[in-house]
From TrEMBL:
<feature type="transmembrane region" description="Helical">
    <location>
        <begin position="155"/>
        <end position="175"/>
    </location>
</feature>
<keyword id="KW-0472">Membrane</keyword>
<keyword id="KW-1133">Transmembrane helix</keyword>
<dbReference type="InterPro" id="IPR000620">
    <property type="entry name" value="EamA_dom"/>
</dbReference>
<feature type="transmembrane region" description="Helical">
    <location>
        <begin position="39"/>
        <end position="59"/>
    </location>
</feature>
<feature type="transmembrane region" description="Helical">
    <location>
        <begin position="284"/>
        <end position="302"/>
    </location>
</feature>
<feature type="transmembrane region" description="Helical">
    <location>
        <begin position="95"/>
        <end position="116"/>
    </location>
</feature>
<feature type="transmembrane region" description="Helical">
    <location>
        <begin position="71"/>
        <end position="89"/>
    </location>
</feature>
<protein>
    <submittedName>
        <fullName>DMT family transporter</fullName>
    </submittedName>
</protein>
<feature type="transmembrane region" description="Helical">
    <location>
        <begin position="255"/>
        <end position="278"/>
    </location>
</feature>
<feature type="transmembrane region" description="Helical">
    <location>
        <begin position="7"/>
        <end position="27"/>
    </location>
</feature>
<dbReference type="GO" id="GO:0016020">
    <property type="term" value="C:membrane"/>
</dbReference>
<feature type="transmembrane region" description="Helical">
    <location>
        <begin position="195"/>
        <end position="214"/>
    </location>
</feature>
<feature type="domain" description="EamA">
    <location>
        <begin position="9"/>
        <end position="118"/>
    </location>
</feature>
<feature type="transmembrane region" description="Helical">
    <location>
        <begin position="128"/>
        <end position="149"/>
    </location>
</feature>
<dbReference type="Pfam" id="PF00892">
    <property type="entry name" value="EamA"/>
</dbReference>
<dbReference type="InterPro" id="IPR037185">
    <property type="entry name" value="EmrE-like"/>
</dbReference>
């Protein structure tokens, strides 16, 4: 019973994280005047500033519990899981659109689930196979549908966008696994503070890139445009980076890696929802079928992780 409560709590946090992260695919569409890298740097500058402000009152107490290994982990998690990942996402969105990018990235649950199959208390791959088939089937169906029915750019642009989305898939799958395992070791720091420390590190990295990446763009946009860019980047930073990352870190501590990977499908569904709203349309029958497959896969995986209830002996 207690295990099921933790399971439910972890899933709720995971759903909240996925909903928050869904907006990251919309941000680059709202700022067409910036490249994927430029919007990523601006977003993480905002993330860093917010994180510093929230962490400053207890900075010394939190940092006193960190080791050199922790700081190294924060550096690589921030660089690969934030800056590189989101640069690839933003570029992919601008080249091939929200649907195609979010659906390729939607294979993250499969990658993370497979990575966690040897962890302690992990469910056997045989039991998870139907769930994985549903998730892969849903992503393949909706990706194929989006590619053959969307506006097709030239082949080089299409290939470049797909490669960026595939790169985002690999980088964030690595982040999800590495971050979860690091959190299991860093018990002296709360999940929320770890998310803020990641923000501070990412902000510092973005600050080093700000001048070469954004400096030459200052004169090409008016004040009203820059205000728009900063407002969008700040909104995405707060919702996705601060709130979303804090919820995800709680999920990583409460759920087995294989199950937390499956919960990531909520991000894909949220991105699709925001994409449909952006395009002012409802999903068609193919998209509804693909979404049903994705949800079925998550429900199946959840059921596999439920604690069995034994009937009392008569």
């Amino acid at each position: 019973m207690f295990a099921d409560r933790l399971l439910l709590k972890g899933i709720v946090y995971g759903v909240c994280a996925g909903l928050c992260w869904g907006v990251i695919f919309l941000g680059p569409q709202l700022t067409p005047g910036l490249s994927g890298l430029q919007f990523a740097v601006l977003r993480f500058l905002c993330y860093g500033a917010i994180s510093v402000a929230l962490l400053m009152p207890r900075w010394r107490r939190v940092c006193a519990n960190l080791t050199i290994a922790d700081w190294k982990s924060l550096f690589w998690l921030s660089l690969i899981g934030n800056l590189i990942y989101y640069t690839l996402v933003g570029t992919g969105v601008q080249l091939v659109g929200i649907a195609t990018t979010s659906l390729i990235v939607g294979l993250i649950p499969v990658f993370v689930t497979l990575a966690g199959r040897h962890d302690v208390n992990a469910i056997s791959l045989r039991k998870l196979t139907p769930s994985l088939f549903c998730a892969v089937g849903g992503v393949v169906l909706i990706s194929w549908h989006a590619l053959i029915n969307g506006d097709k750019p030239d082949i080089l642009t299409n290939v470049a966008g797909i490669l960026c989305a595939a790169g985002a898939l690999v980088t964030w799958s690595w982040f999800a696994v590495s971050n979860a395992r690091r959190l299991a070791q860093v018990v002296s720091v709360s999940a929320h503070d770890w998310a803020l420390l990641t923000g501070v590190m990412t902000g510092a990295q973005s600050l080093l890139l700000a001048v070469p990446v954004l400096g030459w763009q200052v004169g090409t946009h008016g004040n009203s445009e820059w205000l728009h860019f900063v407002m969008v980047a700040g909104g995405v930073a707060f919702l996705s980076s601060v709130v979303g990352n804090a919820c995800w870190n709680q999920t990583s501590r409460l759920l087995p890696l294989a199950l937390s990977g499956q919960v990531l499908v909520i991000e894909t569904l949220a991105a699709l929802l925001f994409g449909f709203l952006w395009e002012h349309r409802l999903p068609d029958s193919y998209e509804i079928a693909a979404i049903a497959l994705l949800v079925s896969g998550v429900v199946w995986c959840l059921n596999c992780h439920r604690t069995p209830r034994h009937s009392p002996a008569v």
